[in-house]
Design goal:
- The complex is a heterotrimer of chains A (243), B (166) and C (464).
- Chain B is mostly helical and 166 residues long.
- Chain B has a domain of 101 residues.
- Chain B contains eight helices and no strands.
- In chain B, helix 4 packs across helix 5.
- With 464 residues, chain C is mainly alpha-helical.
- Chain C has a single domain, classed as Up-down Bundle (Formate dehydrogenase/DMSO reductase fold), CATH 1.20.1630.10.
- Helix content of chain C is 68%, strand content 0%.
- The chains are: A alpha+beta (243), B mainly alpha (166), C mainly alpha (464).
Chain lengths: 243, 166, 464
């Protein structure tokens, strides 16, 4: 766990029994973080950028087959395999435990993307910001997040800019940041309330309680990456697809 | 023979040096109107009167025409510079102020954070701008990352990369 | 910088070794133009990539690495041709090394630029390459890529010195026979070499130290290249055997590259009197040993994976053995083992032609091996989404072709400036080598024992 115990340990709980696969979180994330658009061909070739994706996981065997939806985002590992291998410290874990990516520092070697077992680091194959961004959409860009240039890796930051606003507000009000001070865009948009966000270290927080639930599991947790995204699901998790 | 090598080498170094020196210089900024900061301060105006976002927002902002028009609809002095403003006000055209301090698009600076939380004075980052009688053509303080970081270290502010870059 | 009188007598021996430097025929220009055209085409392809980004390649998520990283590992592997082989042969006092060390060392120095260049091709932001320099910029010491930068940087420096130092006496020889504007070039580079006994002693000490130094550096280079993969937790990359496996593969492909270079230089410059079938025979034997070692490592690696039968590892295993990359995999086995083994195991086929065919086969095979190590792991990440495939684009193929052409071109140009057979070492072999070997041989043989079974020292020899 993070070294600085005075800071909240931000984490997310996703209840797969509640997720309807509506993709609202995907849209909200793209909107919030100025995630570039892609074409059908590029997406089919594995070039689309989507910091959170809803995966369809097949469960059971014919004829009792079930599709389960599973939002997959950066697991915000507490022992991230991606940060160790970065040759320029462009990706690192910050004091709040959030794994960040510093675009002007990134040289685009894609080592972190290969080292990540969850495949949640995305590369800018083109100069999207210049010739792929529809002019009508420019007005809706979020001024708190930069447009990524070509040739760098980008990833989910747990909407770190929102955390910064929350910290600033708390500092102005002269109190510490609390578990309920901010949520990432995906969580705030979930109509099924399948996603919960907060301080995993705070015993009073919802995420702390839910993470202790017998339904809780973490993706590929036997790799020792210590993810801070916790999934909830009734029954066994399918070992061949998840962990 | 050897002399040829020397001449070629030295001239190459000179060219590289010239390019480095040339690229390091900042371009000078010419304002459309020779605005007098000192005079406006003497008139009792706060910085935030013209730079409206300075207290509560990320960007301080440059004054829109309406702000100037509060006082300058009728000329207050004989100044030729003020006359330029008057014509713009009549035409309803915004003053084409030039930004003097610009940061790279991936650097996120917030005036609110530095003024409200850290209680910094303007001159810490902008030099003695309030006493300037003509608009400076070059930034008084070079906002390099090293410069930012040294202040952050001294004052115990955040040293997290993500605090400024995202 | 006047030469002493002893050295001033006209030097007429080994004229054929100087000929490439003195005269250049039309076929050289023809060949160079053709190679230059391919290299320029590669350069054009790279300008496309710079302009539009890495989207012009066939890379995608999850196959983030493709041809460029394959080339990187391959070229760095080839670099083991020279310095390492030459150093080992020097230290083991293999007399047959004399005419071939220069060609080997040249491969090392030139090919390393293409190894580093491949990394540059692969970067999304190549203009920020210097960020990786530790201490001065942002180099992050826990990253295996930084280990690569440090190790390859050291290796390049050491190999360049190791190429240059034994070149000094030859540069002086060229200086003494060449006229015109190039004389100054050789005068500067030969550092005032006169061939005095004092200089010779200094040279021998320097070569001796360098030869010992470059061996651990060379081993470290391919070890850390393998660690770029092995330090991740991806299936079939995360393997402890990768360090030695890559080093063996590197020496393997290095010897193959050396044999090919030797055959071409010998043919083009008519050096049959210097580079003899025995050299190909001996190097062929070394190549055979490496073939078997390669097979041993490959077998150990794949059997361990198969026996463990871990699902994530098996997905990669099957992708290689009987999946989308089975053609590449079995072509690799054919090129890296079957062809060279059949040719080299037989003394009758271990001829110049035979070893060259085996070497070409090994070079292709080792490129395929690097490809097989990198891509199938990437298309099978631990989670089922996404699954990928990789189809290299024309840009990647062009840049790869351009790299090979540019390397060949540089090597060609190098032969026009420097003697490719170490002249002074060949002469030293003639003048001192035979006597040295005889003395050494006498040292190997048992001391002469008098009839009574008592040695000169008065001890009784007992055979245990």
């Amino acid at each position: 766990m993070s070294a600085d115990k005075t800071q909240p340990l931000w984490g997310m709980v996703i209840d797969l029994d509640r997720c309807t696969g509506c993709q609202a979180c995907v849209v909200a994330c793209k909107q919030e973080n100025n995630v570039p658009f892609s074409s059908r061909e590029e997406a089919a070739y594995g070039r689309e950028i989507s910091w959170i994706r809803v995966m369809a996981v097949t469960e059971g065997e014919f004829p009792k087959v079930k599709i389960r939806y599973m939002p997959l985002l950066c697991q915000q590992c507490d022992a991230p395999p991606c940060t160790r291998v970065c040759p320029t410290r462009a990706t690192y874990k910050n004091p709040q435990g959030i794994v960040g990516q510093i675009y002007p520092r990134c040289i685009g070697c894609r080592y972190c993307a290969n080292a990540c077992p969850y495949q949640v680091k995305y590369f800018n194959w083109y100069n999207w910001s210049h010739f792929r961004w529809p002019a009508e959409m420019r007005e809706s860009l979020n001024p708190d997040v930069s447009l990524r240039p070509k040739g760098v890796i980008e990833k989910c930051t747990f909407c770190h800019h929102r955390l910064q606003h929350a910290r600033e507000q708390a500092a102005i009000e002269g109190r510490p940041v609390e578990s309920t001070d901010f949520v990432p865009a995906c969580v705030s948009s979930c109509p099924a309330r399948a996603m919960v966000f907060g301080d995993l270290r705070d015993p009073e927080s919802t995420v702390h309680k839910l993470a202790a639930s017998p339904r809780a599991f973490r993706m590929l947790e036997d790799l020792g990456t210590e993810p801070k995204v916790v999934y909830l699901k009734e029954g066994e998790w399918n070992a061949t697809t998840g962990g | 023979m050897l002399r040829g090598f020397w001449i070629a080498g030295v001239s190459l170094l000179l060219v590289i040096g010239a390019v480095l020196v040339g690229s390091g210089r900042e371009r000078s900024v010419r304002q459309p109107i020779q605005f007098n900061h000192a005079k406006h301060k003497a008139a009792g105006l706060e910085c935030s009167f013209c730079h409206q976002g300075v207290d509560g927002q990320a960007f301080a902002g440059l004054p829109p025409l309406e702000t100037c028009a509060i006082c300058h609809t009728a000329p207050m002095t004989e100044s030729a510079e003020e006359a330029k403003l008057a014509t713009l006000i009549v035409k309803g055209e915004p003053v084409p102020w030039q930004r003097l301090y610009g940061l790279a698009p991936h650097v996120f600076f917030s005036h609110r954070r530095h003024l409200q939380l850290a209680q910094l004075e303007c001159k810490t980052c902008h030099g003695p701008i309030e006493d300037a009688t003509t608009p400076p053509v070059r930034p008084a303080v070079k906002h390099s990352m090293k410069w930012c970081m040294s202040c952050h270290e001294q004052r115990g502010a955040s040293l997290d990369c993500m605090a400024c870059h995202r | 910088m006047r030469r002493p009188a002893a050295d001033a007598s006209p030097d007429t021996g080994d004229a054929i070794l100087f000929r490439p430097i003195v005269t250049t025929g039309p076929s050289f220009y023809l060949g160079a133009t053709a190679l230059l055209a391919v290299a320029l085409w590669g350069l054009y392809a790279y300008t496309r990539q710079l302009r539009y980004g890495l989207g012009v390649t066939g890379l995608n998520r999850p196959v983030y690495w493709g041809f460029y990283i394959t080339n990187f590992v391959f070229f760095v592997g080839i670099s083991h041709a020279g310095t390492l082989i030459s150093a080992i042969l020097r230290l083991s006092k293999a007399e047959w090394r004399r005419p071939i060390t220069r060609m080997a060392e040249t491969i090392t120095v030139l090919v390393l630029f293409f190894g580093l260049g491949s990394i540059l091709m692969d970067l999304g932001r190549p203009e920020r390459f210097y960020f990786v320099i530790p201490f001065f910029w942002y180099g992050h010491l826990t990253s295996p890529l930084i280990w690569d930068v440090l190790s390859i940087g050291t290796y390049l420096t050491a190999s360049t010195i190791y190429l240059y130092v034994p070149l000094i006496p030859d540069l002086a020889l060229v200086r003494d026979r060449i006229t015109g504007w190039r004389k100054g070039f050789y005068r500067v580079l030969s550092l005032g070499w006169t061939g005095s006994p004092k200089q010779h002693r200094a040279l021998e000490i320097a070569i001796g130290i360098l030869a010992v130094l470059v061996i651990p550096i060379a081993v470290s280079v391919h070890t850390v290249v393998s660690w770029v993969f092995a330090m991740t937790i991806q299936p079939m990359w995360h393997s402890t055997i990768f360090g030695p496996y890559f080093v063996v593969g590197a020496i393997f492909s290095g010897i193959a590259a050396l044999i090919i270079a030797m055959a071409i230089v010998r043919r083009v410059y008519h050096l049959e009197a210097y580079i003899k079938p025995v050299h190909f025979n001996y190097l062929g034997t070394l190549l055979l040993v490496m073939t078997l070692l390669w097979l041993y490592f490959t077998f150990a690696e794949y059997l361990t994976t198969y026996y463990g039968h871990e699902p994530k590892e098996m997905a990669v295993f099957w992708a290689k053995v009987n999946g989308p990359y089975r053609t590449v995999f079995w072509a690799m086995v054919l090129c890296d083992f079957i062809v060279p083994f059949v040719i080299l195991a037989n003394r009758k086929t271990r001829t110049v032609t035979g070893t060259v065919i085996a070497s070409i086969s090994v070079s292709i095979g080792m490129w395929l091996e690097r490809f097989t190590i990198i891509i199938p792991t990437l298309i099978n990440p631990r989670l089922d989404w996404p699954r990928g495939l990789y189809h290299p684009s024309w840009v990647e193929v062009s840049i790869t072709a351009g790299f090979f052409a540019a390397f060949a071109l540089l090597y060609m140009v190098f032969t026009k400036f420097f003697p490719m057979v170490s002249i002074w070492e060949v002469r030293e072999g003639r003048e001192r080598g035979i006597q040295d070997v005889q003395e050494r041989l006498r040292g190997y043989l048992p001391d002469e024992v008098p009839a009574g079974g008592v040695s000169p020292a008065g001890e009784i020899h007992v055979i245990r």
